[in-house]
Design brief:
The chain is of the alpha/beta class. The chain is 48% helix and 10% strand.
Length: 211
């Protein structure tokens, strides 16, 4: 019977070694943690082909975190996957307004999704924040609309919605807006775990820089 590695730290170390050895694109030192964590979380080395990181994304994200920025998510699943205690140590919190009072009723009145409505009803929360979208393409579209106004523009958009209706198109639109620092996974792949893992990679990097 095959001998398995059982020690958690050794498992992670070996996983990252395998991932790093298999990378085919040139990444900067500050991009490696994000790329490696995305591949590790997805279990899919081919994901590297569609990872897109804006040249200023890492620097803007780290600066925002070190200044105590909040993280705004589209759904509770993204919020649940983020290391809240570590973020708190940097001065920030994680917020999702999906279940905030009045969102459901207003979404019905406007005829749009709850995730889109939640952001539209809390626009000022986006200013200087890190927005992590892992589920709803409509939420990403709303963030991009709000980002046109400097008063409601995030410091960084992590846009990784998943699916076959609007996900690819919303991410293409995000990536076309090169005036806004962003991190995305182009195409239909994505999801809440990937959005959360990018945030965590940035949090861990920011904490290392604080030591």
């Amino acid at each position: 019977m095959k001998s398995f590695i059982l020690d958690p730290s050794r498992i992670e170390t070996e996983s990252m070694r395998i991932i790093r050895a298999g990378l085919t694109r040139s990444w900067s030192d500050d991009e490696y943690p994000v790329v490696e964590r995305l591949i590790h979380t997805s279990g899919d080395p081919s994901l590297e082909e569609v990872i897109a990181i804006h040249p200023q994304a890492i620097a803007c994200g780290l600066k925002a975190l070190k200044e105590g920025a909040n993280v705004i998510t589209d759904v509770e699943m993204v919020r649940a996957g983020i290391s809240k205690e570590k973020l708190k140590s940097l001065g920030g919190t994680v917020e999702s307004y999906l279940n905030a009072p009045g969102v459901l009723e207003q979404a019905k009145a406007w005829g749009i999704t709850r995730s889109m409505t939640a952001l539209r009803m809390h626009p000022k929360s986006l200013r200087g924040s890190i927005v992590a979208i892992g589920n709803a393409p409509t939420a990403l579209l709303e963030v991009l609309r709000l980002a046109e106004n400097p008063e409601t523009r995030p410091a960084l958009i992590i846009g990784i919605p998943v699916g076959f209706v609007g996900a690819k198109e919303s991410k293409d639109l995000l990536w076309s807006r090169q005036e806004i620092p962003s991190i995305t996974v182009l195409g239909t792949r994505g999801g809440s775990p990937l959005a959360a893992t990018v945030v965590n990679a940035l949090i861990y990097t920011a904490l290392k820089g604080e030591k």
